[in-house]
Amino acid sequence: MAQGDLEPTGLSPVPPSNRRWQFWTQGVACVAILPILGFIGGQGLTLWDEWRGLQVDEVSARSNAVIGYVDINPNPSLAGRPDDWYRDEGEQTLLWAGYRDDQHRWFQVRRGDFDVRSLSMPIGRDAIRTIDHPIFEQGSGRRWDRVPDEAQVVGLEGDDEPPAYPIRVLDKVVAINDRLRNQSILVVYSPREEGVTVFGADLDGQVVVMGQSGYFVDQRPMLYDRETESLWVERNEAMAAVAGPRKGARLPRIARAVAAEWGDWKSRHPRTRLLVGADRSNATSPPPAP
Known about the structure:
This protein is an alpha+beta fold and 290 residues long. It has a domain at 120-278. The chain contains three helices and 18 strands. The chain has helices spanning 16-63, 167-173, 262-268, and strands at 86-89, 92-100, 103-110, 134-138, 152-155, 163-166, 175-180, 183-190, 195-200, 202-203, 206-207, 210-217, 220-225, 231-235, 238-243, 250-256, 258-261, 273-278. It has an eight-stranded antiparallel β-sheet, covered by helices on one side. The chain has a five-stranded mixed β-sheet with strand order 4-18-6-5-17. Strand 1 (86-89) and strand 2 form a beta hairpin. The longest helix has 48 residues, at 16-63.
């Protein structure tokens, strides 16, 4: 083949120096882009964190919104407890029960009924006000419509119109005297376990209506019955009278309340009744029959 038979390709080889220059400029461009990509990534993470924070703040705001529950606030006494808030007098032990009508009041129990060293310091009887006459809303209502879906409640299943009790209410009142399926019940919140237990409240044909004594035993509320002022504590799956005229009596545990978020509970129980407060107009009488 003659040399003249070769056709030119039209491509000229790139000098090595030019190739090095191209590689160098591309490398510089990549290095310049990396901080920009890092900045964009960092801003993305920051925006994500801010969005999550806004979501948390929104949930917190809804959870802490003022619902307007009726008459659930404590009623502390302005009088301080005496130094001898418990003392023995003969065969009796006196436990301070608060200050009312310009004088100190006392629970009177038999000496040795229980070890007073297991008691918390007293805050006064009914400083924490239990509920004797619960107020419910069903389906809708002034308070119902303001409770956020993520609010924590406990409910009692097995009824066509099961009650639901907000934890925010139980934390303030400790116990609720209520009725369920024509049976008197006592709903008790224990800060120690953050659990809610339900006891039957009928004893020898009478309804036992409980108030808060102002004492706790191992972080469990010590209650008193309004008729005999006997003192009661949860023991061995029952509410047991540990001192006073009814010592030895027991109210059996009949249920454990089911914890749930309000939105989930009402979707599963559309006929539920939501506790929204207390009727204090006649606080000394037992809850009426439905």
